[in-house]
């Protein structure tokens, strides 16, 4: 659609701008202020310059939680995106069951995040949880509060449970926008299942899949509540992701400066990655 | 008047934000004087306007400073000089 | 082939429902039975946990405050986002693309970064521990999302409709309310649903901005889980009750939910 140039449109945007700026800019400025100072409480601050940034950037603890964060995000993207597409492809295209399927699948998305954590905690308890008890009965030693691998397995499984449906819904919406005539034509040409997927379905899903990757990247990158409730970041620091480490530093150790510097670095990484995704998406729009 | 002591202002951070704000105002004035934003297809294969170039410069400078802090023990203004060179390159070629 | 077509979605749904079943199962057990060992269904069926939650003000006030901030937030987000989304979908203006991107970055900002300054900010303006604080704070990510979704839906409405209405002598506010809003009614519904959903599931900010009076249900839960021993039955029952509102609203938007997740652009 061609849009008219009209600077008075600013008046329509202004209320949103003010409200979001109030929520975003004031706290962000405050975090920047904290990040260059030392405090002992009572609003007494001492300038420290860039010391905290240097501390954070050279601390192995930060490197470790950053690495954990990227590993986690990579694993869940590698599982959820293909799995979500596969499920969307096998879903019926029409019929009375579609609505029921969609509602049931969307259900995990509407559960408060700490309930998700609590639910998987109950599910994974080694002595009374279905998952934990089951695995141990099968002869697989499993205890997510003791074994780092089991903790990772549980956190990843929980995230797959929680968010794969988002990918399914998006991919399904993309698939439904393909006219029936395309499939008919492919049938007449004798196209294989694979080439239907590759040349008809995948291009149509391109855009929604970009959105899916974008949303999943961002949300998994800031994940906090679910793993915190499930494992508390443990055992040890095995599942201490960036947000958990951040809150630990800020509230647990009252290390405001370090926490603020970490916040800024964390925020800059998010900003960079979202800019890349956004640019890619807008380029897809123009083509 | 609201009590703002909790924001823990220092003149250094205040200067930083004023500079950013001034840059935004300057970009607005520039856009007003010659609308369109000078769009072009730069070496990264992106279509950018000058607003985009400012954003790329600022974000890049932030990472250059972080890299400087993380990898060297030299004074920070070295990173600042590098950022200025980088920003110039962005405005010239990207 | 027919069998596998049904098998995959069915298996997936079973996988989704298992933890929910386990939660429901726990909520109907007595504490003794839960701690006593593994049992796939309640042997001594009891509704004590639910009775406790629905009669104890600490518990049900949590639900009331959760629902009140979620509703306030939904109303604010949608009504602020409507004109802004219209501006983005119809006009080009100075700095529009950058503004849109900036709004989006707030959707992507990790709430953990903002938790502490939010606490300070909302204490300073005297809204701490009220539903308003949480409702306003959740605007940080809900307004950008609402603008994004609404813009997608609005772009699908042909521009000729606006122009015809102006020629017929409609003023902008009258056109917007009388003609335009009914046209994108489903979009508004979906947007409201998404605001509801993200405000309902978020906990970190909600917990930071409240202490006693406006404590959300999810925070009451975490406290119970830690202080009064290990009352898994209560915890499970409270969890089950937090799933119900979501399950109800989802039914109303079932045909549009996918389109909403695609930000109105499929």
For the structure shown, list the relevant keywords:
heterotrimer, A: about 290 residues, mainly alpha, MetI-like fold, two-stranded antiparallel sheet, 12 helices, 3 strands, C: about 270 residues, 14 helices, globular
Written description of the protein model:
The complex is a heterotrimer of chains A (287), B (94) and C (266). Chain A has helices at residues 10-35, 51-58, 60-90, 97-106, 113-124, 130-137, 148-176, 180-188, 193-221, 225-231, 242-252, 256-286, and strands at 4-5, 37-39, 45-47. Chain A is mostly helical. Chain A has 2 domains: 27-58 and 255-287, no CATH class; 71-250, MetI-like (MetI-like fold, Orthogonal Bundle). Chain A has a two-stranded antiparallel ribbon. In chain A, strand 2 and strand 3 (45-47) form a beta hairpin. In chain A, helix 3 crosses helix 7 (148-176), helix 7 packs across helix 9 (193-221) and helix 11 runs antiparallel to helix 12. Chain B has 94 residues and is mostly helical. Chain B has one domain (7-93). In chain B, a hairpin with a 5-residue loop joins strand 1 (40-41) and strand 2 (47-48). The model of chain B has no long low-confidence stretch (mean pLDDT 84). By secondary structure, chain C is mainly alpha-helical. Chain C has 2 domains: 1-46, no CATH class; 56-261, MetI-like fold (Orthogonal Bundle). Helix content of chain C is 77%, strand content 1%. Chain C contains 14 helices and 1 strand. Chain C has helices spanning 2-27, 31-36, 48-55, 57-90, 96-108, 111-124, 131-155, 159-167, 172-183, 185-201, 204-208, 217-227, 232-252, 257-261, and one strand spanning 91-92. The radius of gyration of chain C is 22 Å and the shape is globular. The two termini of chain C are 29 Å apart. In chain C, 48% of the residues are buried. Classes of the chains: A mainly alpha (287), B mainly alpha (94), C mainly alpha (266). The interface between A and C is large, with 93 and 98 residues.
